[in-house]
Amino acid sequence: MHKRIALVLVFVFGILGIIPFLIPHPIVQNFDEFIRNDILRILAAFALALALGSLLRVHVDKIRRKRVNWQYSWILILSFAISSIIGLFGGVAGTGLLKTAIGSFHFDIQTLYENIIIPLASSMFALLAFFMASASYRAFRARSYEATLLLVSAFIVMIGFLPIASSISSRLPAFAQWVLNVPNVAGQRGILFGIALGAVATSLKIILGIERAWLGGGK
Amino acid sequence: MMETLLLALIGLSPPSNVRAYDTPSDGGGSISIEWQLSPDDAQLEGYEIYRSEDGVEFERLGFIGKGRPFYEGNSEDGKTYVYKVAALSDTIRVFSQPSNEAMSSPQWVDMYKLNIFVAMLIFGGFILYFIYHAKKGKDLYIRKIAGLQAVDDAVGRATEMGRPILYILGLGYVEEVATIASLNILGEVAKKTAQYSTKLIVPNADPIVYTVASEIVKESYTKMGKPDAFDPESVFFLAQEQMAFAAGIDGIMTREKPATNFLVGYFAAESLVLAETGAATGAIQIAGTDALAQLPFFITACDYTLIGEELYAASAYISKQPLLLGAIKGEDWGKLVIVLILLITSIIGLITKFPILSLFS
Q1: Would you call B177 and A202 a contact, using CB atoms and an 8 Å cutoff?
Q2: What is the DSSP annotation of B100-151?
Q3: Of B276, B280, B292, B299, which sees the most CB atoms within 10 A?
Q4: B315 in contact with A at a CB cutoff of 8 Å?
Q5: Which whole number is the average pLDDT over A114-127?
Q6: At what angle do helices A2-22 and A26-33 cross, to 10 degrees?
Q7: Mean pLDDT on B51-55
Q8: pTM, two decimal places
Q9: Do A210 and B131 touch (CB under 8 A)?
Q10: Could you tell me the CATH superfamily of domain B2-103?
Q11: Rounded to a whole number, what is the distance in Å from the CA of B232 to chain A's nearest CA?
């Protein structure tokens, strides 16, 4: 029974999602806005509570069972508790009940975000350069016909955009640009056609209840 | 007479034929104004648009550069407006004759999108036609997709090695098609892990996706008759922050050493961080995304990559359900129609741009 209710809801809200694309009238647009923003926000709030519960459960369990690197879970739980207290009682910019500054030392959520989360994320992002180097090595070993094709085209484009390219051949920069503008764009557009049609087909399958894997499959 | 004399002294001609009309196919609150450019357009800075409710008092509405004979201005629905357009050069303004009266109102149909609607109906028709045929038991041929054929081997490998399978849904929200497709594949993969009693790890970046993924895995285990084998802690929320999520997964990859990694859904810059770490741990990696910019990274670092539409077709391919396969067939016919349209229009373009026909005349 609960599966049938889910299928009916998906059908109704799926159709309600298509209608605003074709009808610009404010009555329809405002209703769509209400569903997308207000209702979804309420759902997201409940889901967030469940998600945070899951996060804590996993780490408490890790500590209890003394799994590999369980000590780090304490850091997560403590960080979670401290930032929750500061966020809930101190406000985002330190305008809440809790005092979030000692002299010139600020520890409101905004400051914590800018001085801890952003530098940590930037460090992870910086690692990309090393990952890119190792991935390039893997790609450029030319193990197969496709890998050789990738190697050759990448080599042409890279050399073609170097200042030295025009001294190798006056036509090389233009050829590199052509590789980028014609075969590359043609390939991308082909993929995009597939993506667009696939997205419509997937949506249709779900709205009509043909695709039910998200319900655990079956009839 | 006086006005003509004054204009001759200034040396600027005003724009003419100012026409105002309700902006078509919109939600109201907008009137479009068109005019014929001033003969002295090249000397101008641009055009100022003035609006009046009573036809006497005009207020400045906006400015647009020279050479452009169109402006879309805000309006209050149900009110009547008259417009004038002034040619502007330094401090000299030469006004046009007032436009006709115009009133804006919201529209019920966006006529500009009707072609998309028709295409959607035709494409939907193809899909429903092939689903109908599949229902009647017609055998449908679907080309082999290496990445999806490898799913069974990947699950088997993990079972033999006694290692878990890591399924990453990416950063996408639940309303994105890539995430929905990934959730569908997760359902099928979970059935296989339930069948072989292989450990499944599903970390999530979005709270709503987490709750849906958790339910899907649970349902799949129930469907396979092993509800008790479902570990609620196997599907968990990791982090919403992009790089924190990537760091968390890298940690899981190096600690748990999964035999197989599925990276299916929407990915951004973290794609290579995840795929390279997975490759370094020696896992078989099956990736799939519709994010074009990330595809080269996955192709380079993963064993199999589902490109764009293959990701959407995956659930049907794995489950082998005739109705779903029928939908894929319909999709292929839709593509065939597009290819034919492209081919015909390209030939027409070639003939008209490069008059090859004249060579034979």
Answers
A1: yes
A2: --EE----SS-GGGHHHHHHHHHHHHHHHHHHHHHHTT--------HHHHHH
A3: B276
A4: yes
A5: 91
A6: 140
A7: 89
A8: 0.80
A9: yes
A10: Immunoglobulins (2.60.40.10)
A11: 9
